[in-house]
# Entry
Amino acid sequence: MPPRTLLIALIAAAALMLAQGASPQGQTARGTMPPPSASSYNAATSGSGASSRNDSQTQAAIVASQRLSQTDAAAKWPAVTPLPAGRRKVLIYDFDDTLKNEGNVVANDAAWAVHAGVANGYAIAIASAGCKTEFVKTFLKRRIAPDVFTDAFLNSTAFQLCQPFKTYSLTPIVNYYGLSDARRCAILIDNSKYNKPFADAVGVDFQFVDNGALDGKVGERGLSASDYFSAVAQLDKTCPGTNPPPGEAMIPVAAKVAV
# Structure
């Protein structure tokens, strides 16, 4: 079977299992459904070029999200959840075409948005379908926010890569920040609308990043200040409550687990 066909088949099959009754933690009437693994993803895409992998990943996400949309997964979670005491609301950023644009360029407002969130008491997380772990870590640490993307952060489950089926990256993030019962207090900020059903499936909100040309100029815009303010405003509606002051420890603090 060609690599592209295998990848699409893997993720479409997982989406179909969810549509047949999977819970947000991956439990079905038939037992536990493991998420598509990084090794199976890499095996399916090995030997193909970067553009081929991107095309395959996009098509697989389209297939899986369309099937997941049919389950009306968002109805499983309350529309509004107050922020539990001692927790923080979470801004979950996609990486490619959100924080980083084509040509390995930092998106216009990426560094500002990450720092603005931290300064206002928000927790930060990363959920990317990309598998270039060391490149992403280096890019975040050296070019966007070295004070935020520390070694401790990058070795925690708040940092999720290589999951094109983002349901399985969002769940460990909300658990890490103690929001398993308050998922509306987290939001995925992403340039692909096909990832919204994956966020809906685990009760996480979604903010679309319009990665078009900026002011008619050639090139991508990526994450903007407007996207940040829209995400924060949405969280205020779905998760009423005030973040702890910046720097104040959260309770409980999740154990850090190596990626």
Remarks:
- Residues 90-238 form a domain with the Rossmann fold fold (CATH 3.40.50.1000).
- The CA atoms of residues 156 and 257 lie 5 Å apart.
- The chain has two domains: 3-73, 90-238.
